[in-house]
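Course assignment 3, question 2. Fill in each field.
Student: A.L.
Task: Predict the tertiary structure for the chain below.
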Amino acid sequence: MPDKNHISQTHKILLCSTQEQSEESQEILIEYKLSIYVNGIRYVNLICTHKNLYELVLGNLFTEGIIQGISDIESIEIMEDEGKAFVTLITKDTFKDMIEATEGIRTITTACGKQHSIAYYLMNDENLTTLDYNFTIRFSRILFYVNEFQKSSDIYKLTRGIHSCGLYDEEGMLYLMEDIGRHNAVDKVLGYAIDHGIDLSKTALITSGRVPSDMILKIIKARIPILVARSVPTDVAIEMANKYNITLAGFARGTKINLYSNEQRLLFE
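Answer field:
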């Protein structure tokens, strides 16, 4: 069990080259296993970073379709020493009915880390609606955010092993979330937003990871209009971004980004 105050630990490593070998110390991320129980039923085991666990639970339940908002939850109790989170929903039978309806239907996702018994029950795009184009932002502003984002994670500087997600509005960064898994980092961002009543329809999300279809689906469900990735999307992610009017950009570097869909929201000066 990792110390609550630490998400990394020091390891001695051997640094090797063709000329020499030398010993040095390196900070290595600590894996934390969190088992989430919903109405007494074990829902999922997540391999994550021991940080912002409440937001992770809340965001995961939202993006998986278990809840529509904070009002669906009666309580969340996190027992950090045991690696367990217990969620009680207002409607007691909703989750049980959902499990029974989707029994045997499982999608193995591209999430990072060892995912034990992980089952994404609602990774589909049914009952989703397209976004409007009311929110626009200057392209130069997005570039500024991307370069700020690159410098924002002290954990990445220390370990080189963390994924980050930053949420921005027209004024700048609202907050940053980090995790060993890029999907978890997104869920933490959304969990924080749900808990604090943030209007996501006027925001842009920047992520350090690549964007597969299960990632873009989280953004569509949250109704975030702009997603910018340091890496690249998949073909299905681009198709879904076009279908639901998400502005999707990737390979953000310096003064350039690759724009894959819906440039209407970016104002070029």
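Instructor remarks: Confidence is low (pLDDT under 50) at residues 104-108, 112-122. The CA atoms of residues 193 and 200 lie 7 Å apart.
Grade: pending
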